[in-house]
Amino acid sequence: MADNKNPQLKIAEAESCHLELNRLYGVTKEKVEIVRIGNSSNDSKQLKTDVKEAQRLLRAMQVKIAHLKSLSKEVTSSESSTTQITNFLQIPSLNDRKTIEINVLSHEKQMSLLQKKLKEGAEDVGKDIAAEERRSLLLTKDGKLATGNIKIASHEERATRLQDLLARMSQQVDSGEQAMSSLVHSSSVLGQTHAEYDNQKGHIMVCIAPITMIIISFQTGNKLLSKYEQREFTEKILLVFFFLFYFGVVYYILQKRIFSWFKIF
Q: Which residue ranges traverse the bilayer (predicted)?
């Protein structure tokens, strides 16, 4: 029975998908109109953001339409695969299938129309923004276009700007020359310092040599003292051993010769 109810569930899902597509169409249409009208600041970045948002909504519509189309095919296949019809089964009618197919075609036309409007609107607004940017480049300081006699003034202004630029470039060249001369002076001072170090290197080595010899002497003396201490310790151990051996021998002799004589009596 669950398989026989499946077509009705598919029809309900298709109806829900149709309603969601209507909602997406309204939201996408508003975003496309915003792109076509353009923003108040004529900002190219804002235009790109609006176009990306509209494209995202169109992709969401495309996914929903594909899902609705697959539901239409499933409803059709489920009706054709049913061989026995009873009074208890509810098989989708021809009107239901036609309604889903008509909705699919309607939503596809809506999506293609929105895509066309988005492309045309983005191109028109982009041209307007580019024209406005070019126009802003031609404006003078008082906000007027550089036309007629103003062009002569603009040429004079350009000559003045070029002179200022040349003056700044000459200043930069002078500062570069000064930096170069300071680098040359620093390198010469460094060379002199290195030469003085080479000259004083021999004196430094002569002064360091006695100190090195003293350090080596101390190290050698420490090594000799440690060796003498080890020898002294070894000699003490040998002396103790020999004394013990001597007393042992004496005790053994006394025990064998004298203590044994007392035992006789």
A: 204-225, 237-254
135's CB contacts (< 8 A; 6+ apart) are 145
Residue 259 phi/psi, 5° resolution?
A: -65, -30
CA atoms within 13 A on the CB side of 78: 24
Distance separating alpha carbons of residues 256 and 79, to the nearest angstrom: 131
* Per-residue buried b or exposed e for 176-215, using 16+ beta carbons within 10 Å of the residue's own CB: eeeeeeeeeeeeeeeeeeeeeeeeeeeeeeeeeeeeeeee
Q: Which CATH architecture has domain 2-141?
A: Up-down Bundle (1.20)
Residue 153's closest CA among 166, 168, 138, 169? 138
- Give per-residue pLDDT as tens, 9-44: 888 888 888 888 889 889 988 888 888 776 544 567
Q: Are 3 and 36 in contact (CB under 8 A)?
A: no
Arithmetic mean of pLDDT, 138-150 = 52
Count CB atoms within 10 A of the CB of residue 236. 10
**Residues 192-247: tens digit of each pLDDT:** 887 777 777 776 777 777 777 888 888 888 888 888 888 888 988 999 999 999 99
Backbone angles phi, psi at 89, to 5 degrees: -95, 140
State CA 86 to chain mean position distance. Answer: 65
Does this model's pTM top 0.70? no
Cα–Cα dist 241/246, whole Å: 9
**Residue 123 class from Cβ within 10 Å (0-12 exposed, 13-18 middle, 19+ buried)?**
exposed
Residue ranges per domain, the chain? 2-141, 232-265
Q: Measure the CA–CA gap between 8 and 26, rounded to whole angstroms.
A: 28
Q: How many helices, marked H, and strands, marked E, lie in the chain?
A: 5, 0
